[in-house]
Amino acid sequence: MSSAMVHLSCAKKVDANAPVLFYTGNIAPDMIGTRAEKDRTHFRGIPDRFGALHRFAEGLDLSDPFSRGVLLHLFLDLHWDREGYDVYAAAHASEPGWFFQYRREIFLAGSYLYHHDPEAPALFLEMNRTFLPLNPSSPFPCGITRDGLQGFLARTWYPMLNAREAYSVAFPPDFVEQFTDFVAGEFRKTFGKA
Q1: pLDDT value, residue 164
Q2: 33 secondary structure, DSSP code
Q3: What is d(CA 60, CA 66) in angstroms, rounded to the nearest whole number?
Q4: Which of 11, 33, 45, 78 is deepest in the core (most CB within 10 A)?
Q5: Alpha-carbon distance 54 to 75, whole Å?
Q6: Of residues 12, 139, 29, the one with CA closest to residue 73
Q7: C-alpha dist (Å) from residue 132 to 13, 49, 127
Q8: Are 73 and 29 a contacting pair, CB within 8 Å?
Q9: What is the torsional sign of CA 81, 181, 20, 58?
Q10: Which stretches does DSSP call E strand in 29-103?
Q11: What is the pLDDT of residue 170?
């Protein structure tokens, strides 16, 4: 589980000219409310998580920007869990409150990206105006609504506006840049270009 801005930064590297639904799809899986449901929809706990993600992708219309965005979100989180979360947890799990500090670090990483991407404010506004394609062929048709999107954006966006100069020590800008470069390249190799 990374920050919305890490997802959006990677999405821009995959397709900078994508429609807003692609970017909305990139954050949609995090709108799911409960941790257990999010773990299930992100294929956590499945021994062959890559295989589960590939089987999920086979059922998607990857020409649909929202579906492609959802797939990129899940692909990035699969890599983030290994490169970000697992590494951080291994180094800090014995510390009291380590998970809350981890959440703070990913918030700071996202805030830094937001304030150093001149297109981010306009993208958040555009996503906030988006009507989600909730039809039976869309991934995660249950639990993701326009109200849910607006609530998620508010919880994600407004706090970032007040964290201008801070950045994450655990996930500094160069780490995030290299990570999103890698994930974008692997996603294009694995699932093709849009």
Answers
A1: 65
A2: -
A3: 10
A4: 11
A5: 9
A6: 29
A7: 23, 27, 10
A8: yes
A9: negative
A10: none
A11: 93
Structure tokens at 178: 């290299």
The residue with tokens 């009507």 is: 131
Residues 6+ apart with CB under 8 A from 60: 67, 68, 70, 71, 139
The CA distance from 153 to 147, in Å, is: 10
Confidence at residue 165, expressed as pLDDT on a 0 to 100 scale: 63
The ranges of the chain with pLDDT < 50 are 135-136, 141
Cα(75)–Cα(156) distance, integer angstroms: 21
Please give the Cα distance from 33 to 152 (Å, whole number): 10
What's the rounded Cα separation, in Å, for the pair 104 and 94?
17
Contact 31, 152 (CB under 8 A): yes
Task: Quote the pLDDT of residue 160.
Answer: 66
Q: What count of other Cβ atoms lies within 10 Å of the Cβ of residue 175?
A: 14
Q: How many residues belong to the chain?
A: 194
Assess contact for 89 and 15: CB atoms under 8 A: no
- pLDDT at res. 161: 63
**Other CB atoms within 10 Å distance of the CB of residue 87:** 13
Instruction: Identify the burial level of 112 via C-beta atoms within 10 angstroms of its C-beta, where 0-12 means exposed, 13-18 middle and 19 or more buried.
Output: buried
- Three-state SS sequence of 77-120: HHHHHHHHHHHHHHHHCCCCCHHHHHHHHHHHHHHHHHHCCCCH
The conformation of residue 145, written as its DSSP 8-state character, comes to: -
pLDDT at 194: 66
